[in-house]
């Protein structure tokens, strides 16, 4: 019998349960979007605007959900999105998430702002298909170089550069509750930063407002331009994904500048409010990229059918954020595993109901977007 924490039908049930057990500062930081949270809401809403058209009389007695990413087979087209400070949710934090992703056969993206050191997180996920390291670029470029090279030596398979955060969005819950990293936790990857001591003081500080936004404003390099990508290729041989792309033009420029993958994302509605839902931005970006590099997306993925919609609209895989934190808060590694398993089972069943025995059977014609006509309207 599953314990109570693991008894849920779908991942949408988890947020109110996590709210009951997490301290309000931590829950507020995890759950919130920026400003009026219009983009945050639209991420989930957008998926409800798209309809699925099943094809019939196809042999779906066997359904294969696997895909290849960077040459590795993954159990289904989902990755765990980079999320900072996971030990606020559970003492095992990023270690539990990494083990769970590996056990479920999917990649995890580890945040620069982890509360477990990146090599330990990589080690915990050693049984998995692949892991990526998410990079925030600090003003101190030598430190950035060391961080990337340490990630490469530790066995990460790709670098994900987050390009939508020259500053942190205005998250009002963090301001309201004066968000600080709890005293017993550290941003473990940043201990080598020359000003680490000062920065640690800031994330823990008594200054008013969000400690993390203050720290970000002090240390993140907000002067980045496209020439950063050629520089990055000189310090690492790993493939480089750009995370936070929302326009076809930027996707194109990113690929021209040397990106090996594009992640369509509005950072879970936490950066620019009123940015488009990632799903709405996806088709134009997929067209601009034109299969030159993989296109991933995140924001609002909560169901197996959400994965189907994103893939049919041009994504090669999707990432999931907050439900992982809720599963982690409720039951550590087992909670994260149950979240991933629930979505994988939904995906498998919905693929069968769509007449798709494998991922390559998913096709644009099976999704009706808000701007499409229903197929029979043309008869
Ligand atoms: C609590 C939290 C922390 C996050 N930390 C990072 C981070 O460190 N780096 C990053 O690139 N994105 C970060 N993100 C954004 C996620 O990677 C992802 O884009 C977003 O959460 C996906 O939307 P979803 O939560 O609706 O699934 C964070 C998101 C949340 C909710
Ligand atoms: C520590 C933060 C900079 C991590 C982040 O990207 C976020 O909170 O959205």
Automatic annotation (TrEMBL):
Domain FMN hydroxy acid dehydrogenase residues, every copy: 3-372
Ranked from the top, the taxonomy reads:
Eukaryota, Viridiplantae, Chlorophyta, core chlorophytes, Trebouxiophyceae
Q: Which residues form a coiled coil?
A: none
**Which protein, by its recorded name, is this?**
G9910 protein
Q: Which UniProt keywords apply?
A: Flavoprotein, FMN, Oxidoreductase
The record's gene field reads: g9910
Q: Which family does it belong to?
A: Belongs to the FMN-dependent alpha-hydroxy acid dehydrogenase family.
Source organism per entry reads Coccomyxa viridis
Checking InterPro entries in the record gives:
Aldolase_TIM, Alpha-hydoxy_acid_DH_FMN, FMN-dep_DH, FMN_HAD, FMN_hydac_DH_AS
- Give yes or no: UniProt keyword tRNA processing: no
Q: Which domain of life is it from?
A: Eukaryota
The cofactors named for this UniProt entry are: FMN
GTP-binding as a keyword? no
Q: Spell out the Gene3D superfamilies in the cross-references.
A: Aldolase class I
């Amino acid at each position: 019998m599953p314990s109570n924490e693991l008894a849920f039908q779908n991942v949408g049930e988890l947020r109110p349960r996590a709210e009951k057990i997490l301290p309000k500062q931590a829950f507020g930081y995890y759950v919130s979007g920026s400003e009026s949270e219009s983009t945050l809401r639209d991420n989930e809403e957008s998926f409800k605007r798209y309809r699925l058209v099943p094809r019939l009389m196809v042999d779906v007695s066997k359904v294969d959900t696997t895909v290849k990413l960077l040459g590795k087979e993954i159990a289904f087209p989902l990755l765990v999105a980079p999320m900072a400070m996971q030990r606020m949710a559970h003492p095992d934090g990023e270690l539990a998430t990494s083990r769970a992703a590996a056990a479920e056969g999917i990649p995890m993206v580890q945040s620069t702002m982890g509360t477990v050191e990146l090599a330990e997180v990589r080690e915990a996920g050693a049984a998995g298909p692949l892991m990526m390291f998410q990079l925030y670029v600090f003003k101190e470029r030598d430190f950035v170089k060391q961080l990337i090279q340490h990630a490469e030596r530790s066995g990460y398979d790709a670098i994900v550069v987050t390009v939508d955060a020259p500053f942190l969005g205005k998250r009002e819950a963090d301001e309201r509750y004066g968000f600080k990293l709890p005293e017993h936790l550290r941003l473990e990857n940043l201990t080598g930063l020359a000003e680490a001591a000062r920065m640690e003081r800031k994330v823990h500080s008594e200054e008013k407002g969000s400690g993390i936004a203050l720290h970000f404003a002090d240390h993140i390099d907000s002067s980045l331009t496209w020439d950063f990508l050629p520089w990055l290729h000189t310090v690492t041989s790993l493939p480089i994904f750009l995370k936070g792309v929302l326009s076809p033009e930027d996707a194109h420029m990113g690929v021209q500048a040397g990106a090996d993958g594009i992640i369509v994302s509005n950072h879970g509605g936490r950066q620019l409010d009123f940015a488009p839902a990632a799903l709405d931005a996806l088709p134009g970006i997929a067209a601009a990229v034109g299969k030159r590099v993989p296109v991933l997306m995140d924001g609002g993925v909560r169901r197996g059918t959400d994965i189907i919609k994103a893939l049919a609209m041009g994504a090669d895989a999707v990432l999931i954020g907050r439900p992982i934190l809720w599963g982690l808060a409720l039951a550590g590694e087992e909670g994260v595993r149950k979240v991933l398993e629930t979505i994988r089972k939904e995906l498998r069943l919905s693929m069968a109901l769509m007449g798709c025995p494998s991922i390559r059977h998913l096709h644009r014609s099976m999704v009706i977007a808000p701007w499409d006509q229903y197929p029979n309207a043309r008869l």
